[in-house]
Amino acid sequence: MSRESEADLPGEAALPGTLPDALRAELVAFRRDLHMHPELGNQEFRTTAAIKERLEKAGLKPRVLSIGTGLICDIGDIGAGSEGAGSGTVPPMLALRADIDALPIPDTKSDCAYRSTVPDRAHACGHDIHTTVVLGAGLVLAELHRQGRLPRPVRLLFQPAEEILPGGATDAIECGALDGVGRIIAVHCDPKVDAGRIGLRHGPITSACDRLEVSLDGAGGHTARPHLTTDLVTAAARVVTDVPALVARRVDARSGLAVTWGRIESGHACNVIPQHAELSGTVRCLDLDAWHQAPDLVHAAIDEIANLHRAKSEINYVRGVPPVVNDPVITELLRDAMTARLGAHSIETTEQSLGGEDFSWYLEQVPGAMARLGVRRPGERGVRDLHQGDFDADEHAITVGVELFTAAALIDGQR
Q: What is the 3-state secondary structure (H, E, C) of the chain?
């Protein structure tokens, strides 16, 4: 199917808010400018200013978050609408969320006119696409509001520092980003899905990931007399092998809770039992309830093994992010929106990813859903994977994302 025929699909004419050609071209240019000027988490000052300027040009009133980067912008008559008309009750808003930060890796695309101009910085996770999609949707919805065709207020949320644990979403929430919000939606670029399509899934769509650091200490000594020491290397080895097994047996196996070690370090000589050992790794989990239990389970298992070997343990369990768990009702809202715009054939079922996403923090507060936004050029061989220096996206995904969000806002407001 050619892209020129997309506007003729069934359901397209039923909703306003398609993307005008002039705005489409502007958004592509905006995305390329962001791609050329990537900024790391909590340093997105230029990006924030660019978004703010364009929204103000459209007559909107964006508010920069008190942490200095990121912003929110409300569209529509707050306090009006079907639920609040005549009563002063504020209808819950639908929030459209984008993350705006880049990664600390070099852009290795040699044939790209808009490659990063900042050394060792790149939009290699598609956040420039996410940002442009929410901006574009906001501009379209603002025009619909001026025409009296926006049924319910919408909030645009441009969040900083998604790539920094535990994620900038926690700061945004503290800054009031969810105040008045009843539900929230987002997209994430997926290089395994063709542009023009999205991936949807009920329930968990990403995984939790925490960081674990362990120090073991004890009385060292000569390897000829281990009975007089804390045999620390053996103790560390038992923590490495026994803790994952213990943890796995103390939760439902379907939760996918897994402790995996990436570093172990101890000792300097073959005949000296050391006094100190260090281990570090990750704790990943597919299930939200099991993730809430994970710190206590891991602490208990490590202490159990360490005490058995008379080693003193010090544990630094660093919370990362919980899994993104899509609300079924809002997932179906995205399905209805995509069907209205491009037809049911443009939707595919996606798998749960082992990656983490701090969009999950919003879902701890309000129901919401994330869709996978296809960014692969149709017919392209191979995959330009996320978090790689050569990552790029088919910019047709911007149009798809904007129309997905605008349709979702209109359909949600009619329910």
A: CCHHHHHHCCCHHHCCCCCCHHHHHHHHHHHHHHHHCCCCCCCCHHHHHHHHHHHHHCCCCCEECCCCCCEEEEECCECECCCCCCCCCCCCEEEEEEECCCECCCCCCCCCCCCCCCCCCECCCCHHHHHHHHHHHHHHHHHHHHCCCCCCCEEEEEECCCCCCCCCHHHHHHCCCCCCEEEEEEEEEEEEEECCCEEECCEECCCEEEEEEEEEECCCEECCCHHHCCCHHHHHHHHHHHHHHHHHHCCCHHHCCEEEEEEEEECCCCCEECCEEEEEEEEEECCHHHHHHHHHHHHHHHHHHHHHCCCEEEEEEEEEECCCEECHHHHHHHHHHHHHHHCHHHEEECCCCCCCCCHHHHHCCCCEEEEEEEEECCCCCCCCCCCCCCCCCCCHHHHHHHHHHHHHHHHHHCC
